[in-house]
Write a structure and sequence with these properties.
It is built from ten helices and eleven strands. By secondary structure, the protein is of the alpha/beta class. It is globular and about 70 Å long. Bound molecules: adenosine-5'-triphosphate and magnesium ion (MG). Magnesium ion binds next to loops.
Length: about 290
């Protein structure tokens, strides 16, 4: 049954696009329990005071600006392009891509400087303009909303500025990259004044869940079987081993319902608990 919470945080994510699947996966990994309906307008979390709104990604900064939602997850490229008045709270380490300048494989253009007085098609006119201005190049920017990569083949641009992750779309259109403008990834954003909102405590709790997923992604728990006498030699390979040994801390293992664990974390931290590793259980036989 869904708990009824008084003060809900509202988080906007992309309704249907490249960010959607990975964002949902990230939120589920953070232990948030919600379902996604077919209409995808709004989902309410069962175990955290959170409502998830499904919106077009370009509109998310405006929803934050108008205070309709508190938080959003978008590609950092939108922050560079539109410079909305929002604060980036966290890099989420997925949906990596780069904004690149690409030209037809067999074109004479070798470097960005060769683009002077040529036409460039893009859905990112501001980012492209800033980039070409930096090189003092007079480039005619043609703004189009989709399928930018076919513009050179159709003959209405000499080059493109577009997002690319694996490069496979560019390769399919026989384009090659001449320059990388910036790298992007999914980011969590909020109103710049969110800390003053009565919901800021809840936002901090959500951020701490997100950080726990990000840290877990970087580390593996290893169980090493070794003779006692070589233990000091292992310290140089495993920095955390030394810390644990020297501080004489003990590792305890126990089972707890995940929701209860999340509720207890602030108090456990206050008590002086250091690292908490959360692992899934395959089966329980009691
Ligand atoms: P919407 O209908 O929500 O406005 P959209 O068409 O603007 O969607 P998508 O193509 O779904 O947007 O891309 C959303 C985000 O996914 C981009 O802003 C970017 O941050 C990220 N992304 C990751 N890889 C790529 C890629 N190879 N090409 C384009 N975007 C990518
Ligand atoms: Mg969009």
């Amino acid at each position: 049954m869904t708990k009824i919470y008084g003060n809900m945080i509202k988080l906007a994510i992309q309704k249907d696009g490249r960010l959607t699947a990975e964002t949902l996966d990230f939120l589920w990994k953070a232990g948030l329990d919600f379902e996604v309906s077919k209409q995808r307008l709004l989902s309410t979390c069962r175990n955290f005071p959170l409502e998830i709104y499904f919106i077009r990604d370009d509109d998310i900064p405006n929803y934050i600006g108008s205070k309709i939602v508190d938080l959003g997850i978008i590609g950092q490229n939108i922050l560079f392009e539109k410079r909305p008045k929002v604060k980036k709270l966290l890099n989420l380490r997925y949906c990596f891509c780069s904004l690149v300048v690409a030209v037809p494989k067999d074109s004479n253009i070798k470097t960005v400087s060769d683009l002077n007085s040529l036409r460039v098609a893009t859905s990112y006119p501001e980012s492209a303009k800033i980039f070409f201005d930096k090189y003092n190049l007079k480039v005619s920017i043609v703004t189009i909303n989709g399928s930018v990569e076919i513009a050179p083949n159709l003959g209405f641009a000499d080059a493109i500025v577009d997002l690319s992750s694996s490069g496979s779309t560019l390769a399919m259109q026989e384009l090659r990259v001449v320059s990388n403008i910036f790298d992007s990834e999914a980011v969590l954003i909020a109103d710049p004044l969110y800390l003053k909102s009565p919901k800021s405590g809840l936002v901090e709790q959500l951020i701490s869940r997100f950080k726990s997923v990000l840290s877990a992604k970087q580390y593996k728990l290893v169980i090493i079987n070794s003779a006692q006498n070589i233990l000091p030699k292992l310290y140089k390979f495993f920095p955390y081993l030394k810390r644990n040994q020297l501080s004489k801390s003990v590792n305890i293992q126990t089972v707890i319902k995940e929701d209860l664990l999340w509720e207890s974390i602030p108090r456990l931290k206050k008590l002086g608990v250091k690292d908490i590793y959360i692992l899934p259980i395959e089966k329980i036989i009691s």
